[in-house]
Write a structure and sequence with these properties.
The chain is an alpha+beta fold and 496 residues long. The chain is built from 14 helices and 10 strands. The protein folds into 3 domains: 186 residues, no CATH class; 140 residues, Beta-Lactamase (2-Layer Sandwich); 153 residues, Reverse transcriptase/Diguanylate cyclase domain (Alpha-Beta Plaits), CATH 3.30.70.270.
């Protein structure tokens, strides 16, 4: 009966692994429907085995009926989601669907844990029964010491075998839960920095004696950059993807000595002497491309298969965040200057003004927002005299200066052409005027072709003095800027 319980626990562990694999495969590539359908069949097969194993237990049969219902609902959600995703790809105006909207198997995992909890309690009761019977047998066989000794040895051997099997199952179940929890946290991240903080804390807590780093390949794919440092790891030399032997082979590389040495240039840059035998370096692969590596040393107490599976769970969310950052850059960033574009400004200024109104309402003090409208004087002359490449260079130079002149909460936006808008939350009129003058004087020091001096015409307006709505304040600043141009350029005027 104890062996029977172990079979049930092993089946639960298999189902948890398959559910996690199904989720990962779907997130990795929704186009791989054959793999997706194959995993569905495997999960249903394991469910049928579980039904057979527990057919003599009415309570577990009821639990399994609930499990089957939740699995059926989850599969239906996945089918609907895949259909929705396919339709969105065929629609030009479709909204971006992120992994945050993927159906989650949380209800299935909860039910599997309930079945597992019941089975473990059953295991404890069966153990007590085995112990009781063993004591009874020992008592009745006390007259035969030889027989009792043989029986005790056999019973002890069986118990040790069962304990070892249980420990392996518990370890695997714990690993599955850790992977699932980490994956859920990473998929909830909105920025790469949030993911890096979670990963750093995760490795420090789970592997306190290990050191290493998560290296990511940069956008131009010519450098390996350490984005998450683990333990006391450090590297000062420049690393490239070509340096790493694990990236070349597309599989995990171990530090264990072989009959020949692997000429990994990355390891030579990290370790001054020889590569430590307990090192593991495994690629981070997702969306049919490699995004980096997980490099760890002092891993002798860590299950290698767990690390390899872990690298897959890390790669998917990081790849998603890279994709989101790229989409954000394409959607909300001006390609010529790198500043926020007008579309982003229109959305953000509404949010900033709404916050200002709320804060003003909640406190007695008036919350102010400064706004500066800038225009590069005689910009067309740069294009006419020196060419459009020079004009683009002037645009980038001014944009860079504006960005460097702003605080973290300020917004620097390209409004269009040679016009820029700065939005300064929690800034009064005097502070906005001072900022505008510093910018006007500062751009004159920027280098330009022909040693020409860049000058700006700037208009300043403030919320709520020059309007209660974003459009009103923006219009007031724009009119002030146009007046500055009409009065001779290279000056800052405040809206009236």
């Amino acid at each position: 009966m104890v062996n029977h319980t172990f079979e049930v626990l092993e089946n639960i562990q298999n189902q948890q692994s398959l559910i996690l694999q199904l989720k990962s495969e779907l997130q990795n590539s929704t186009s791989a429907l054959s793999q997706y359908q194959s995993l569905q069949l495997k999960i249903l097969a394991q469910l049928n085995i579980l039904k057979t194993l527990t057919q003599d237990n009415p309570n577990q049969q009821n639990n399994i009926k609930l499990l089957q219902s939740k699995i059926d609902n989850y599969f239906q959600e996945l089918d609907n989601f895949i259909l929705k995703l396919k339709n969105s790809k065929n629609t030009s105006n479709s909204k971006i669907i992120t992994y945050h909207s993927y159906p989650k198997p949380d209800k299935i995992n909860e039910q599997l844990k309930a079945i597992e909890y019941y089975e473990k309690n059953l295991l404890n009761r069966r153990r007590e029964e085995v112990n009781r019977r063993g004591n009874t047998v020992t008592a009745t066989a006390i007259a035969s010491l030889l027989f009792a000794g043989i029986l005790s040895w056999q019973t002890g051997k069986e118990r040790r075998r069962q304990l070892a099997k249980e420990n392996r199952l518990n370890t695997q179940l714990a690993f599955n839960e850790i992977e699932q929890e980490l994956n859920n946290h990473l998929l909830a991240c909105r920025t790469k920095q949030e993911a890096y903080e979670i990963l750093h804390s995760f490795f420090q807590s789970l592997f306190p004696t290990s050191s290493g780093a998560i290296f990511e390949i940069n956008n131009s794919r010519d450098q390996l950059l350490p984005t998450v440092v683990i333990g006391d790891f450090s590297i000062t030399e420049l690393c490239t993807p070509k340096d790493c032997w694990a990236l070349r082979q597309g599989q995990a590389c171990l530090g264990e000595r072989k009959i020949f040495a692997i000429p990994c240039q990355l390891c030579k840059k990290i370790y001054s002497n020889s590569t430590p035998p307990e090192m593991i370096c495994t690629p981070l692969q997702a969306h049919e491309q490699t995004i980096g590596i997980l490099h760890l040393t002092n891993t002798e107490t860590i299950d290698r298969n767990f690390l390899k599976n872990l690298s897959y769970q890390i790669a998917l969310p990081l790849a998603m965040l890279h994709l989101q950052a790229e989409l954000e850059h394409q959607t909300f960033r001006d390609s010529a200057t790198g500043l926020w574009n007008r579309r982003f400004m229109d959305v953000s200024i509404q949010r900033i003004f709404a916050r200002a109104k709320r804060l003003s309402h909640e406190s007695e003090a008036q919350y102010l927002v400064g706004l500066i409208f800038c225009d590069i004087d005689h910009f067309k002359a740069y294009n006419t005299e020196f060419g459009h490449e020079t004009g683009d260079m002037v645009l980038r130079s001014v944009a860079k200066f504006l960005l460097e002149s702003c605080r973290e909460d300020d917004l620097s936006c390209r409004y269009g052409g040679e016009e820029f808008v700065l939005i300064l939350p929690d800034t009064d009129l005097k502070g906005t005027q001072i900022k505008a003058e510093k910018i006007r004087e500062g751009v004159k020091c920027l280098p330009t072709p022909g040693n020409r001096t860049i000058s700006l015409s700037l208009g300043v307006a403030i919320y709520p003095s020059h309007g209660a709505m974003p459009e009103e304040v923006l219009k007031a600043a724009n009119l002030a800027m146009l007046t500055a141009k009409a009065e001779g350029r290279d000056r800052t005027l405040t809206a009236t």
